């Protein structure tokens, strides 16, 4: 089967080539890939940024989210059958959606929302699960609370704004001048043009901040939170709680403790909590997200769709950080 393969870590690595079809385990479904979402995570894995946390064996097929059709199922699969239209974010040790076929554990696969086409559905799993786990699971966001979502026009931001509004929160976001209308249309109540204004001088007494930007933004974000507020970051640094979640050895736990020491200390001084989120695969949550999409509460925002043969260009576009919503590659 054709696939996008990483033979070695590095920015200029990655090629289109042939790989064997994936082997189907008893709990797996084999999905014929119609479309796959492209994310900053893909570039970071290719570049080797996560090789200590995610020790992949090379050669590696890249790709972290998918929409397609079930071709075959393993002997223990109960919920899904051949012909089902599905979407998924495979678990972190079984990525590989930049290919004609991918085998995924049934526990990570959900039926595709009925109101979405394949390309739209491929743009949802990773970012929607990230937003859900940050706002619902980590932050416990409640109706009437105030949340700041950084980079509101990005893949995670466009979904997180909609989800937070659906949950009844007041939503502030940061974006550039040209994207202000987009984020307001998604439901943002307060929009800050980061090129003109400093968010930390404008916002006060927020309950939650979702950070996806750099360390400087992360540290500034502490000051906009009220006591008892929650700062959740998907761009790091990883903290001891995350080390515990993934079962790191003692050495890695100490590394993560050191990496996050400064932000955890600052958070403690301000009476707020800091946590790092590396999103997990979940069919159960994808089913809830799909119901919200079909009810009209959420919709994916797609910047561009590339043919599979142009996957390097798709990755390069995502790396610019200027995509509005999601970038997708189409196979069928």
From TrEMBL:
CDD domains listed in its UniProt record: MDR_like_2 (cd05289)
InterPro entries: ADH-like_N, ER, GroES-like_sf, NAD(P)-bd_dom_sf, Quin_OxRdtase/zeta-crystal_CS, YIM1/Zinc_Alcohol_DH_Fams
Upper taxonomic lineage: Bacteria, Pseudomonadati, Pseudomonadota, Betaproteobacteria, Burkholderiales
Entries under Pfam families matching the protein: ADH_N, ADH_zinc_N_2
Gene Ontology MF terms in the entry: oxidoreductase activity; zinc ion binding
Domain of life: Bacteria
Enoyl reductase (ER) domain: residues covered: 10-329
Protein name from the UniProt record: NADP-dependent oxidoreductase
Record keywords, A-Z: Oxidoreductase
SMART domains: PKS_ER (SM00829)
């Amino acid at each position: 089967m054709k696939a996008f393969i990483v033979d070695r870590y590095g920015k200029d690595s990655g090629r289109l080539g042939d790989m064997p079809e994936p082997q189907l385990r008893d709990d797996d479904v084999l999905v014929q890939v119609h479309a796959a979402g492209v994310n900053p995570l893909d570039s970071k894995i290719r570049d080797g940024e996560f090789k200590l946390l995610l020790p992949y064996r090379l050669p590696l097929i890249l790709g972290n989210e998918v929409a397609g059709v079930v071709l075959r199922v393993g002997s223990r699969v109960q919920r899904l059958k051949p012909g089902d239209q599905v979407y998924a974010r495979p678990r972190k040790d079984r990525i590989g959606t930049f290919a004609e076929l991918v085998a995924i554990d049934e526990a990570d696969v959900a039926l595709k929302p009925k109101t979405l086409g394949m390309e739209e559905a491929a743009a949802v799993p990773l970012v929607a699960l990230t937003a859900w786990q940050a706002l619902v699971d980590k932050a416990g966001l409640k109706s009437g609370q105030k949340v700041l979502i950084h980079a509101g026009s990005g893949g995670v931001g466009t979904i997180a704004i909609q989800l937070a509004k659906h949950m009844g929160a007041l939503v502030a976001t940061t974006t550039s001048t040209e994207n202000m209308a987009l984020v307001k249309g998604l439901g943002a109540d307060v929009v800050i043009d980061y090129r003109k204004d400093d968010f930390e001088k404008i916002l006060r007494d927020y309950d939650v901040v979702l950070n996806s930007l750099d360390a400087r933004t992360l540290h500034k974000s502490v000051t906009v939170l009220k006591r008892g507020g929650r700062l959740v970051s998907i761009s790091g640094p990883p903290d001891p709680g995350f080390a515990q979640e993934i079962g790191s050895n003692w050495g890695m736990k100490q590394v993560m403790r050191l990496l996050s020491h400064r932000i955890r200390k600052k958070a403690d001084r301000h009476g707020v909590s800091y946590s790092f989120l590396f999103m997990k695969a979940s069919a159960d949550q994808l089913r809830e997200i799909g119901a919200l999409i079909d009810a009209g509460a959420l919709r994916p925002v797609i910047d561009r769709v590339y043919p599979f043969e142009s996957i390097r260009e798709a990755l390069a576009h995502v790396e610019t950080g200027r995509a509005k919503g999601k970038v997708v590659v189409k196979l069928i």
